[in-house]
Amino acid sequence: MPKHKPERRAKPKDEDEDTSGATNAAYIFDIAGQASSAPGTEDGLLAAMGSNNSVQVYQATTLALEHRLEGHTDIVSGVKFAHTNPSMLYSSSLDGTIRCCDLRVSNKKPAQILKGYEGDQFFSLDVNCDDTVVCGGCQKRMPDTNVVLWDSRTGQIVHTYPDSHSDDITQVKFHPSIPHKLASGSTDGLISIFDVRQSDEDDAVENVLNTESSVDRMVRS
Hints:
four-stranded antiparallel β-sheet; mainly beta; 2% helix; single chain; 1 helix
């Protein structure tokens, strides 16, 4: 089935009333877990993206609320912990930004805000295995549906692939051990494999699979 597009809706009266430590969002769209616990902590963390445009971070075993991250102005579409520094948490949004927060910092202001091109709305997110490249996949817009790549160290866009998909990019996923290998899936039915060291899209595309069905999720074995 196609990836569900969260609908904007009126906020229930009690949506922001948090008396139990549980999420204050009416819906949880997705969660992400740390690959490993941050140094100095015994328990891993879970990040949940909610329908109130926030990201909430919980202890994985007790589900105690640790952090509530706000700042996105539209639906949060993805969350991802960094691999080599698991205290860094990325979130993508239809507001056209990807925000990176350092959970060790008390004020929770973003350490970095990555922006695409005018009109980009990010529908998917991933970070490569050595945390040097961040990728955002966009919702369909005319004339392009962008796969955007940033250097995480500088915050600058390094490559953009606008032509490989013709509809919403529902997922982008890096190889777990090869930092320059990226797969993208879309509601256009295509899965594209890229070598992100290449700036030219024709050179970057290594393979394309037509599933003849809308792609929702990709899982590596």
